[in-house]
Amino acid sequence: MNDKLYAQRKFEIETPEGDVFIAVAELKSLSGQDPYFSICGELYDRGPARGEASVVNSKGQRKYLGACGQMTDDVIKHFYELHKFLKWHLTSTVEPMHYVANTVYHASKGNVDAARRSAVWLDAPLETLMAGEEHLTALLLIRLPALMDEFRRDMAELFGSQWNKGLTTDAKTGKVQE
Questions:
Q1: CA Rg value for the chain
Q2: Tens digit of each residue's pLDDT (9 = 90 or more) over 130-165
Q3: From CA 171, how far away is CA 17, in angstroms rounded?
Q4: What are the E-state strand segments in the chain?
Q5: Which residue has better confidence, 175 or 78?
Q6: pLDDT tens per residue, range 111-126
Q7: CA dist., res. 69 & res. 86, Å (int)
Q8: Contact by Cβ (8 Å): 165, 6
């Protein structure tokens, strides 16, 4: 496999109850795909379980993994400073995951909130989303370069200069790639 980690930051907090919450932000590539950003949480809040991941809290208690995944609400609750990066979850260095297809699909089904999240365009006008597949596709492609510029700025803010080590930017397209 061609898995590669380009950048990673971990944020950890212990709750008053002794539970441990870790948020992990990373830019990685799995199986040779385009590098993509993810931000996930890990909650260590339960007793022993054989073979489970665990951490030791400040009281010396071993806590076992009770939940993990995107956990958006918990990330915001414990690390509000990360909220601005959550919109980029599963965005590659080329585009948000299935950017056009997911946005058009959700818009066509009338699921405006999902269409906005897929487009990483939370204030997209309703009339724009409902303008039809061809028109919406054209608009999404027109705004993609500026959207990806914003993504690159946010990744630089989150990870510093390490975020794109091993990656290059194509001068013609502006796409970041290996």
A1: 19
A2: 999 999 999 999 999 999 999 999 999 999 977 776
A3: 51
A4: 4-14, 20-29, 36-46, 54-56, 62-69, 91-92, 168-169, 176-177
A5: 78
A6: 999 999 999 999 999 9
A7: 13
A8: yes
**The pTM is what?**
0.86
How would DSSP label each residue in 70-88? --HHHHHHH-GGGGGGGGG
Q: Which residues of 111-135 are buried (b: 16+ CB within 10 A; e: fewer)?
A: eeeebbbbbbbeebeeeebeeeeee
**Local structure of 13: helix, strand or coil:** strand
Domain boundaries, the chain: 1-89, 94-178
Q: Return the DSSP state at 161.
A: G
Summarised one tens digit per residue, pLDDT across range 38-88 is 999 999 998 877 778 899 999 999 999 999 999 999 999 999 999 999 999
As a dihedral over the C-alpha atoms of residue 147, residue 152, residue 157, residue 158, rounded to 10 degrees, the angle is 100
Q: Which residues contact 120 (CB under 8 A, 6 or more apart)?
A: 87, 88, 91, 96, 99, 147
Gap between the Cα atoms of 18 and 84, Å rounded = 27
